[in-house]
Design a protein that fits this description.
Helix content: 25-40%
Structural class: alpha/beta
Largest sheet: 6 strands, parallel
Shape: globular
Number of strands: 8
Strand order of the largest sheet: 2-1-3-4-7-8
Distance between the termini: 12 Å
Number of helices: 6
Amino acid sequence: MDRPLILYLHGFCSSPASWKSRLLGEEMARRGLAEHFACPQLSPVPDEAVVCAETLIEQSGGEVVLVGSSLGGHYANHLAEKHDLRAVLINPAVIDRLDLGLFVGDHTNFHSGEAFAFTAAHAAQLRSQVRVPSPGRYWLLAETDDEVLDVRLAEAFYAGCRQTILPGGDHSFTKFPDFVSQIIEFAGL
């Protein structure tokens, strides 16, 4: 593949049907770049989610740029460090600074309605994936009024990285449409 692949990693309880994934995929298709965009359905089991993403990275045969939202931001950080990739992180989960016990229990996927349990073993898998970010490879996009994750944790964890922190908004990153073209440019497309 002569051009980079944008690999979008969705968040907890989400799917490829998330509005950010759809918007980015639609813009890529509009530009004739549909084959350079992928957003897999990630397993709620963290180790399985990483294996899924790594399979796509290996199959791409070329450069991959990650875009991760919320928990997908954590996965993007892990994969970027492990495979020497660049990543855009959107309101990312900073796992080593979160009480993952708050998430243990039963959940339902927002789009498919699929029920799943998040266990203490899953929390341990996430903790084992934490990697210290290398500043040159990331672009942090966040909004200060994220009601799910404290943006200050991401600001501190990604200190030294390119950061765009916008006032207001929410966990969905309401200003995402304003950044679609810039994300595609960041990927070198």
